[in-house]
Amino acid sequence: MLTLECPYCGVKAEETELQAGGEAHLKRYGPGSSDDEFESYLFMRKNPKGVHFERWRHAYGCGKWFLAARCTATLEVFGTYSAQTKEPPADLQAKIKAKRPNWEGYK
Amino acid sequence: MSKAVSALGGVSHKGFAEVAEAGLRGMITVRGDLSSAAMKKAVKAATGTAVPAARRIEIDGDKAAAWMSPDELLVMVPYEGAQDAVAALEKALAGEHHLVADVSDARSVFTVKGSKAPEALMKLCPVDFGTLAEGEIRRTRAAQVAAAFWKSGADEFTLVSFRSVAGYVMGLLEVSSRKGGEIFPA
């Protein structure tokens, strides 16, 4: 069972109160982009065994989208943070790096 | 005007906890900047309470203001007073970016009473009752539908759901509170 803390209301919500939204920090390509870029934005997703950044929505609570970093292999949650960020907070990245020295970074 | 009635006509059941439909309640959704001075004035005018902090509910007699999300409040007043409260809120929030909507007829209210009331809700909601603070409103799900509840008395919880699922919620509460179904039997 996955338990994530919503960064907006502070509720420790379990999985069934949340709605999964797929990979976080996607760069959006729209009109004017190349076909390859657009295809990669639409279809190409990471599928790592290990650290993964995801979008979640507190669907049965405050209704806000937030981002979470967790390990897909162990279900360990490293942290959750606001969706209004371009990249994972530096302190969270440092925390993950400390726990997973072989982690290559979020890019 | 036609006579307003609640979804289930105040039906109640008595098991190890007493569950009842509480009847009509005036409910108003307010969205906007919760930290603004105008919002403070508006909530004061409508309910006489302060703007609730995150996840809190401020209760004053038969009126209350509950925190729904970082930009949303639920203002509760007696059913007959909903129109007046909407007018008061609109007046206080004029010129601000805001939304005020009377949702009284879209909601149902239930009460769960008794010393074992939490046990009836524990079976339905994925909530840690050990960490549920006094004066906290918890938005969650009751089995398959959205609901919110708070502790409204010493041995009483009030639960709010959408009116369209009132029959389902009453069914859940009735089954959940049947005698013999206690989680911690004495």
UniProtKB/TrEMBL annotation, chain A:
<protein>
    <submittedName>
        <fullName>Sarcosine oxidase subunit delta</fullName>
    </submittedName>
</protein>
<dbReference type="InterPro" id="IPR006279">
    <property type="entry name" value="SoxD"/>
</dbReference>
<dbReference type="Pfam" id="PF04267">
    <property type="entry name" value="SoxD"/>
</dbReference>
<dbReference type="InterPro" id="IPR038561">
    <property type="entry name" value="SoxD_sf"/>
</dbReference>
UniProtKB/TrEMBL annotation, chain B:
<dbReference type="Pfam" id="PF04268">
    <property type="entry name" value="SoxG"/>
</dbReference>
<protein>
    <submittedName>
        <fullName>Sarcosine oxidase subunit gamma</fullName>
    </submittedName>
</protein>
<dbReference type="InterPro" id="IPR027266">
    <property type="entry name" value="TrmE/GcvT-like"/>
</dbReference>
<dbReference type="InterPro" id="IPR007375">
    <property type="entry name" value="SoxG"/>
</dbReference>
